[in-house]
Amino acid sequence: MSNSQKTNTRLDGKIALVTGGTKGIGKAIADRLADAGATIIVTARSQPADANQSYHFIAADLAKVGESDKLANEINEKFGKVDILINNIGGTSSPAGGFGTLTHEHWNNDLQLNLMAPVNLDRALLPKMLEAGEGVIIHISSINSQLPLWEANMPYGAAKAALDNYSKGLSNELASKGVRVLTVSPGPVKTGAMQAFLGDFANALGKTIDEATQVMMDKIGGIPMGKMAAPEDIAELVGFLVSPAAAYITGVNYIVDGGTIPVV
């Protein structure tokens, strides 16, 4: 690695797509990459009123079959390719309560959103990266892939575990072809989505949000740093990983959890 690579975290001239990029972790990542000089494309089901107008927004529901190809076609027509793909979209609409509360539809929805949406978007955008001989793909996973919370979000954790495995396999396939693939697994992050999850979890448990939060913290063993991450904490790592400074890094799952995972 050259000295310029070691110090260069700029992204001037790069085109980055951030899925779910209008709020929470996705918005923080989009802002971080824009600050580094990248041209930003964001996608979500709908554009919020306070969206950054300097970003190119494309509406897409990536959990639906065909939406990834539609999105990729529009991007290729307008930009030619993307250099950086941040597969940030994810979440769960499944009820808390464990196995007996979960239907086929719950499982299918979570697998489509958290696993197949990034798989399908990778398939749609990778050909242009491979043609160029360079690119970076980041999959945003979760520590739930290693710390299952059966009471709260069993299908979500299972889907993220599958995403981790897929991401590692894809990195091995593409490493010699100039495309780097990495995974970032946050612990609890202070976002609107987290607050909504805790509200639903509290209702399922018949507890207050503070009580439900404590139940979750007890299940994961607490956060040694004593607080949830901010979205910007995740974005800073992503900004480094997609930059020339990280040119020799691929196939790694980075845990960003304030020390929660109890193993080395």
From TrEMBL:
<keyword id="KW-0560">Oxidoreductase</keyword>
<dbReference type="Pfam" id="PF13561">
    <property type="entry name" value="adh_short_C2"/>
</dbReference>
<protein>
    <submittedName>
        <fullName>NAD(P)-dependent dehydrogenase, short-chain alcohol dehydrogenase family</fullName>
    </submittedName>
</protein>
<dbReference type="InterPro" id="IPR020904">
    <property type="entry name" value="Sc_DH/Rdtase_CS"/>
</dbReference>
<dbReference type="InterPro" id="IPR002347">
    <property type="entry name" value="SDR_fam"/>
</dbReference>
<dbReference type="InterPro" id="IPR036291">
    <property type="entry name" value="NAD(P)-bd_dom_sf"/>
</dbReference>
<dbReference type="GO" id="GO:0016616">
    <property type="term" value="F:oxidoreductase activity, acting on the CH-OH group of donors, NAD or NADP as acceptor"/>
</dbReference>
<comment type="similarity">
    <text>Belongs to the short-chain dehydrogenases/reductases (SDR) family.</text>
</comment>
